C-alpha cells in the first residue's frame, strides 16, 4: 500500500523551536505507512491580502503552499501559544488556505484530515492555542482529530540537548495522534473511492440509456 503523505507545519519560526522539534519527532516515531514532510517556508508567506487572492495574482509561495496542502493526504500542525492564541504567522497562512473566491480552485482545507499538537514551556502547554486553532477548522470544515490531545507542557524538560524528544509519555501520545490521523486519512480515501465508483456507475447507466 502507498504511504500516506502528511505535510507538517510548525507555527514557530524560531530556529530551536520545540514545536518544530515535535514534528521531527513525528518523523522519527511515526507508526509506519506515513511520509511526513516538514514545511519550511512559513516565514516567506506575506500578510493576507484579499486583492491578491486570485489564481492570477496570488504570490507564488502561497500558490505552492495551497498546492502542497491540496495534494497531501493529511496535515500535522504544531502550534506554540502566543497571547492565549495561535501565532499570527500560522493564522495568516491558514487564511490564505481557506479561500476559493472564484469557485474554481477548490478549498485546500475542506474535509482535509488534520492533527494538532503543541509544545510550550508553561504548565498548560498550548491548551488555549489548540482550542483557537480548532475553532478555525470548524469554519473550514476540516476533519480534525479529536483524541488524543497532545499538549507538551514544560517542553524544555521533554527534549535532550540535541533537540530530541525523550519523554516517553509524549512519544506515546504523539504516536497515538498519528495513528488517529491515519484512521481519518484511510476513511477519507475510502469515501473518495466510493464516490468515484458511484460516478462511474452513473456514467455507465447514462451511456446505457443513451444507447437504448
Structural summary, described in words:
This protein has helices at residues 18-29, 60-71, 88-97, 127-139, 168-211; strands at 4-10, 34-38, 74-78, 113-119, 143-144, 150-152. By secondary structure, it is of the alpha/beta class. Strands 1, 2, 3, 4, 5 and 6 form a 6-stranded parallel sheet that branches. The protein is globular and about 75 Å long.
Q: Could you tell me the number of beta strands?
A: 6
* Strand percent estimate: 5-15%
Counting DSSP H or I runs of 4 or more residues, the number of helices is 5
Please give the share of residues in helix: 40-55%
The value of Rg in angstroms is: 19 Å
State the end-to-end CA separation: 41 Å
Summarize the main sheet: 6 strands, parallel
